[in-house]
Amino acid sequence: MLHKELTARKGGAHKRLRSISRDLDRLDELLVDFGRHPRRATKSNQPRLDAAINKQVDRLLKLRENDLYWNGELDGNAGLGAEYIMMLHFLGIQHLPEFAEKARKLANYTRQWQTPEGHWAIYAGGPGNLSYSVICYFGLKLAGDSPDAPHMAKARAWILKNGGALQIGVEQRLLLALFGQYDWAGVAPIPPWLVLLPHLPMLPRAIESKLINIYDLSYWCRVSLVPMSVLYQLQPLRKLDPKLGVDELFLETPEKRRWDFSGAPREAGMFNWGSLLNIGAKAVKRLESLTRGVIAKIALNKAQKWILDHQDDSGDWGGIYPPIMYGIMALTQMGMNLSDPRIVKAFKALDRFMIYHPECDGLHMEACVSPVWDTAWALYALGEAGFDTSRPEFQNAIDWLYSRQILRDGDWAVKNPGAIPGGWCFQFYNDFYPDVDDSAVVLQTLLYGGFSARQPGRFEQARIGVEWLLSMQNDDGGWSAFECGVDKALVNHIPFNDLSNMLDPSTADLTGHMIEMLGHLGYDKSFAPVARGIAWLKANQETAKGRAGSWWGRWGVNYVYGTWSALTGLAQVGEDMGQMYVRRAVDWLYSVRNPDGGWGESCDTYRDPKLAGRGPSTPSQTSWALLGLIAAGEQDDPRVRDGIDYLLKTQLPGGGWDENYFTGTGFPNAFYLNYHFYREYFPLLALARYRNAICGLKAI
């Protein structure tokens, strides 16, 4: 009934799915076997291996929250806590006891992340990041740290040595401008009339591709830029005691602190999109005084409506920290009281992102939370390990995953109208932005859950999820994370896009996970969407020296992650793993193996691809490499056995593994993550997959 109701509401079959309607009809037959044959526990002739798997199964079960789901901590960087302190001062509520205590603890955590050299990095062991070092310094100063304290003096010296505060990024300039520490004339233009620009899919592709509106920007940028544009238009000023300012971080006098439009990437030559957009940005800056009348009022009203319309019932915006902070600040500047229920809910949403660290009496402000992602992978690893999937511990979590399916339209429907909603998001709450990656992993995980007589609707939920994912395939054959068609190269030349992270194109990791999920459901490479996905992977395999044969990873670090995702997807849909392009991927993985038998890769590889596959061994990256090699049929190779031995040797006495390096990618070269549970479920999955492979058991 649910599928029929949603189809009727959408007006019939989705146009992208009509060409494969007969193949989709097979989905009902394939789903009949959904979860009918769960993996059974087996024993190998390697007692060490069996003991390690059993130990990790027991440990993983103990890591559940509320006996329902897994939700590991996500290390990001200390800058978010410093920004929270700045927000409190901007709103004038830093003196309230509740917030003063949070600011004190956030400052404690921020100090813990300062390096001996004085700077703050965006990943463990990484180079100093000037933008976040300035923000952390400012946040600590607002929290009461004396600029003469040794740690502050050291930070200030590093910042000045590395160019001073004038060289920080677009977002950080806006934050400083809110406090009069940076002239608004030096902030890149972020006009709110962006929300007035329409999405015009009816135009010829050649014309439409040269136009930009907010739905051409990735969701994670869009949901922050709209409230940021309100702040840019209103240009509020929170006056500070001069002693709390950061004038000492600038090498230039105030009149010389101007933006020079040099942040965004540029093409060679006099006339190109980059230079034209620069000219346009300068014109916008000059004409700002003329747009502060009727146009500004209309734009601000529409921006306010957009912000309020996109707030989840939970209080979140986009399920991530930045838009929640900017949403609170923008709405209060447009007259909304802090006691308004929508603002109160937003603060409660931020509270859910805070984790207390008793060792430093500090609060860690996470960028987001990951319960759906962690739960799906944890269950998948348990299923592969032969855990009895009929047990309540498993079925309760399966029920929870089903309950998280999103059956309403979000921003993805702007460029994918007519598709039936049915995806899953990464977080507890993010109904406007379900994503392909989570949805694909959830669906292949649900295979282990089966159907329940008391819940006959599961069959329809699975079908709706698969159809939504198929409708999200890009025109180039690959899949992106949150929306299809958000891939205009022109966006990379927008002046406020200084980090080049505003697109959501097809990637190898997403495409690999998608075709792997379809393979689990019984589809093979004769299925048209799978064939197009394989063609995309072939066309986008790396060819440069040092990384030839690998695939770039967008959401995990980096080429090891992308290569694992591609290989496991290809194997699951029945690709011939003896083909040359597959063997090149296998050879590349072997070529970057470390002497200790493991694999590792640094976040530096996004900045310098010549470092691809290089870095200290980590449990998660070793597991990804092993999973890719096992998918390619390499389980009997001594180098694979050495990798398994690395995981066995480094497992802790009580289970689990240590992993201090960041192996998750938020935004390349801008924001990275250390998923605390990657070290828990990926090694279990690799060990279990290896055991099943040497025992002759095929993947489900």
Present the secondary structure layout:
Layout: H1 2-10, H2 21-32, H3 47-62, E1 74-75, H4 79-91, H5 97-112, H6 130-142, H7 150-161, H8 170-177, H9 205-208, H10 219-234, H11 273-287, H12 294-309, H13 321-333, H14 341-351, E2 354-357, E3 362-365, H15 371-384, H16 392-403, H17 436-446, H18 458-471, H19 508-520, H20 528-539, H21 559-572, H22 580-591, H23 619-631, H24 638-650, E4 664-667, E5 671-675, H25 678-694
Antiparallel strand pairs: 1-5, 2-3, 4-5
Helix pairs in contact: 2-18, 3-25, 4-5, 4-6, 4-13, 6-7, 10-12, 10-13, 13-14, 15-16, 15-17, 15-25, 17-18, 17-19, 19-20, 19-21, 21-23, 23-24, 23-25
Give a short synopsis of this structure.
The protein has helices spanning 2-10, 21-32, 47-62, 79-91, 97-112, 130-142, 150-161, 170-177, 205-208, 219-234, 273-287, 294-309, 321-333, 341-351, 371-384, 392-403, 436-446, 458-471, 508-520, 528-539, 559-572, 580-591, 619-631, 638-650, 678-694; strands at 74-75, 354-357, 362-365, 664-667, 671-675. It has 700 residues and is mainly alpha-helical. The relative contact order is 0.12.
Query: SSE order, as H and E?
Result: HHHEHHHHHHHHHHHEEHHHHHHHHHHEEH
Which fold does the CATH topology of the largest domain refer to?
Answer: Glycosyltransferase
Helix content estimate: 40-55%
Number of distinct beta strands: 5
